[in-house]
Design brief:
alpha/beta; 8-stranded mixed beta sheet; 24 helices
């Protein structure tokens, strides 16, 4: 297995933070010290992402980013200069605090700051001076300090590329309105080196302004793809959809945010803070809002969020469709969905879920116009709200397209995962070892649900005949009883994927926990001592609930270093969830070799998992048709076959083909099949599984497509 195969010389952008400031922002808990680093964070996307971009032209740079093969920007935060040596990069650009005291004993780096200091000029420059040319000059100046291999690598890059170290911009006559809602896209356009102008900074929302920035980014993407097609391509996100959602705890635990509660916590001016909390929950801050210290804090925090998204957009050149959806628009219906689902009130759940879809549609229809009507797009959601459940072209977004998400809160985590743009490369054979962690009390009635199905999986025909196959999935099932045994189990495993099979919970006032046989624990309590695999699959209830605060089990695994987590938005049914996990194993066993060995193409985990959720959606729909006596059980195999023919590989307009096949088999109109999906087949179990983190950056390599380095 190969992890994080970096180029020989990458570039790390290191930001020195105030070591005395450990505060978090008031509303979403971002590191408060980052608020003072916005100019630096905006500057980074204007600089080369890696060493290749130091020497290549603007067009080649954009082509590389669109290919999906290369890592994004490497941004590292430090609080002590001794941490610079720990950063794994030969080319380091360090942004220092004003008034920083330089000395000759500093680690080798290009130091950027506005202090007028006595240090060799090749090692420092001011913020407005750092650009492609300055970084190229720094590399040339330190070449005698590099190894022979590193110097040879630089020479080969200069020969391979155009050796274009100019800082020329793409000419344009574009004038944009700059605001909270266009900030991320304007940063992406700056990273494209587009020469544009903007009017004064405003907070107000304008759909027209957002669409204009999206259109320019997409035009550039299209032109580069047509004029400089890449030999090796992976799918990259076609769009980011973000909203104005904030920390759900502000509504889940309202009593903690009243004037009296805030006063008791020691906040200055609790009356103003309470008003601001109410405004941020409903996206109520605009140009006319009376300013206060807390209004300014909320404004600056939102600005920080948009700048972080802008860096993310720049890594692979994609636009952000910003929608004005806020907590107040959805929380009451999310709470009702949670209540009805937990009480097994299907009638109430159906009514509330359909209402949720209507609200989501009103906010997302403009953004969804940028998604393909014929093919599956890759979409990244940045939100605390389940935008994945909005409908697009007859299906939930997460079924129609390949969707994954970043949380907005807690900010200290969102900051980390949004800026983690490195790829992980894994060979297929690594998936022959899967760790399943099960833990139940001896008298638990669901204890054997998954284990009995694993036994069945091991005796399936394809596994009995696996001795003739090069690839076989082996399940290593462990049963830790307590915290210490769980840590030992994780630390002794090198499996790239771990499945958790146990109870989960998340109380309204608490944080997410998983229940081992002898105790319930929070994953946050073990992240410093336990190895986290790149891929975590949680077959447990409420591991990222839509109606609880954001200190979820899923977010805890991301905090511990997992690259992606599949988590549950609500309670899940044990029998169905164990079936889901077995389908995962079967898909690994049968589907991976077809893609990796036969088709000789690499596969991103996001596509693998989305494909599985998509297949499960139609299988569950067929089961619904059987349960409601619209078809007999004898038709299940035929309909599953018809759906499978459209899904693996995924056809254009796959849903239309499946609806047509189902209508013909059922002898009803296609519109009636769609009506059943829209009105009767409400919130199937598969929709409760949301993809967190960066599953698109986990790449299962095909040697015929992307050779794995040794």
């Amino acid at each position: 297995m190969a992890f994080n195969q970096k180029p020989l010389l990458n570039i790390s952008y290191i930001i020195m933070l105030d070591k005395e400031n450990n505060d978090l922002t008031t509303f979403n808990e971002y590191p408060a010290t980052l608020i003072n680093k916005l100019d630096i964070l905006r500057k980074i996307p204007e600089l080369p992402k890696d060493l290749c971009e130091v020497f290549c032209s603007k067009e080649t740079s954009i082509q590389h980013r669109l290919s999906g093969i290369f890592d994004g920007y490497t941004v590292v935060f430090i609080k002590d200069m001794s941490e610079i040596d720990e950063v794994e990069s030969e080319i380091k650009v360090v942004f220092v605090c004003d008034g920083f005291d330089f000395d000759l004993s500093l680690p080798r780096a290009l130091y950027v700051g506005n202090s007028d200091v006595n240090i060799n000029s090749k090692y420092k420059c001011k913020l407005d001076e750092v650009n492609h040319q300055r970084i190229a000059s720094y590399i040339y100046e330190i070449s005698n300090e590099l190894s022979e291999l590193q110097v040879s690598y630089i020479s080969k890059l200069r020969e391979l590329y155009e050796d274009d170290t100019s800082n020329h911009m793409i000419d344009s006559d574009c004038i944009f309105n700059r605001s909270i809602f266009t900030e991320a896209n304007l940063i992406a356009l700056s990273s494209l080196r587009l020469d544009y102008e903007f009017e004064r900074y405003r907070y107000e929302y304008s759909e027209e302004d957002i669409l204009k920035t999206i259109n320019v980014i997409n035009i550039i993407r299209k032109k580069i793809s047509e004029n400089k097609p890449s030999n090796i391509m992976l799918r990259t996100n076609s769009i980011v959809i973000s909203d104005m959602s904030v920390n759900l705890d502000l509504q889940v635990n309202k009593s903690e945010y009243t004037q009296n509660a805030l006063k008791n916590k020691g906040f200055d001016d609790p009356i103003s803070l309470e008003k601001t909390i109410k405004l941020v929950q409903r996206n109520g801050i605009d140009e006319k809002t009376k300013r206060s210290q807390y209004i300014d804090l909320a404004y600056n925090e939102r600005n920080l969020i948009e700048v972080l998204i802008g860096i993310y957009l720049s890594s692979n050149i994609m636009p952000c469709a910003k929608i004005p959806l806020s907590n107040s628009d959805l929380y009451s219906v999310l709470k009702d969905i949670g209540i009805n689902d937990r009480n097994h009130n299907q009638k109430g759940l159906k009514r509330k879920y359909i209402n949720l879809r209507k609200v989501l549609h009103n906010f997302t229809q403009e953004a969804f116009e940028y998604l393909s009507e014929r093919n599956s797009s890759m979409v990244k959601v940045v939100s605390n709200l389940p935008i994945e459940w909005a409908y697009h072209n007859g299906l939930p977004l997460m079924v129609r397209h390949t969707v994954s998400r970043f949380p907005v809160s807690p900010g200290w985590l969102a900051n980390k995962v949004i800026l983690d743009t490195s790829n992980i490369h894994i060979d297929m054979n690594s998936f022959s070892n899967i760790l399943v962690i099960s833990s139940f009390r001896d008298d638990d009635i669901i204890k054997e649900h998954l284990s009995s199905k694993i036994e069945l999986f091991n005796t399936m025909p394809f596994n009995r005949e696996a001795r003739d196959k090069k690839f076989k999935v082996n399940i290593n099932r462990q049963e830790p009883s307590n915290r210490e045994e769980l840590i030992a189990t994780l630390n002794s495993s090198s499996a790239p994927i771990v499945v958790f099979d146990m109870h989960g919970g998340h109380s309204e006032e608490g944080i997410g926990v998983i229940s081992l046989k002898n105790e319930a624990i929070s994953i946050l309590d073990i992240v410093q001592v336990a190895r986290m695999p790149p891929i975590v699959v949680l077959s447990s209830c409420d591991t990222s609930p839509i109606d609880r605060n954001n200190y979820s089990t899923a977010n805890a695994f991301l905090a511990g270093g997992a690259k992606t987590v599949l988590a549950s938005a609500l309670p899940i049914l044990s029998d169905e969830s164990s079936t889901f996990i077995i389908r995962l194993f079967i898909r690994l066993q049968e589907y991976l070799p077809i893609v990796i060995d036969k088709e000789k193409r690499s596969l991103q985990w996001s596509s693998f998992m989305s494909g599985m959720i998509r297949r499960t959606f139609y299988t569950e729909f067929i089961d619904h048709l059987i349960k409601t006596k619209k078809i007999g059980r004898d038709r299940k195999s035929k309909l599953n076959f018809e759906a499978g023919m459209c899904l693996d590989p995924l056809r254009e307009e796959f849903h239309s083909h499946i609806i047509s096949a189902f209508a013909k088999e059922m002898r009803i109109d296609e519109s009636e099949v769609q009506r059943i999906i829209d009105e009767d087949f409400v919130l199937p179990e598969c929709l409760k599984y949301l993809q967190y983190g960066s599953p698109e950056r986990i790449i299962i390599n095909s040697p015929g497509h992307i050779p794995l380095s040794q």
